[in-house]
Amino acid sequence: MPTVTKAAHKPGDYFVDYESKVFEDVKAEPGEKALVTFHTMAFEGSIGLVNILNAIRLNKKGYETSILLYGPGVLLGVQRGFPKIGDEAFPGHQNFNKNLERFMAEGGKVYACRFALQALYGAGEPSLIPGITPIMPQDVLDCVLLHKKANAVIIDTWTV
To answer: Which Gene3D superfamilies match (predicted)?
Structure first.
């Protein structure tokens, strides 16, 4: 059996070079837009949280950024907690809520499809995190088309 001779890693050590950026730091030109869509389930993968963080970053880069929640994605935008709304039942339980609230506080817009909210998941508009705009199912396509017409950056996420 080989012997390990290297000292164990300790807090403060680095595993990778996190300072060497390969690409230039792109910033938005005035009026540029971005749209991040979500057709994904809360807590069933990392993409929901990752793309909320991407939307926050796009906003910081100067893009007029919107998030579109449709299909199961609307579940990212509902109020949650246990035993009471807002309580964190386990570490990370409020990640979606806190980061969507942060995104909106920093000027981002969040839209959620009413059809998915009610017809698919039995929730109503009062279930949404305050600040999220409920939209008609016909608005889902028009939201994407308007962003395409504006030559927006679009990150489209679909998981099954």
So the answer is: DsrEFH-like
Neighbours of 108 (CB within 10 A): 23
Mean pLDDT over 70-94 rounds to: 95
91: preceding bond cis by omega (within 30 degrees): no
CB 48 within 8 A of CB 40: yes
151 closest CA partner among 7, 6, 59, 35: 35
Contact call for residues 98 and 111 (beta carbons, < 8 A): no
Q: Are 143 and 70 in contact (CB under 8 A)?
A: no
Could you report the per-residue pLDDT of 23-79, keeping only the tens digit for each? 999 999 999 999 999 998 888 878 899 999 999 999 999 999 999 999 999 999 999
Q: Is the predicted pLDDT of residue 160 greater than 70, yes or no? A: no
Q: Are 63 and 153 in contact (CB under 8 A)?
A: yes
Q: Please name the CATH architecture into which domain 33-158 falls.
A: 3-Layer(aba) Sandwich (3.40)
Entry pTM: 0.90
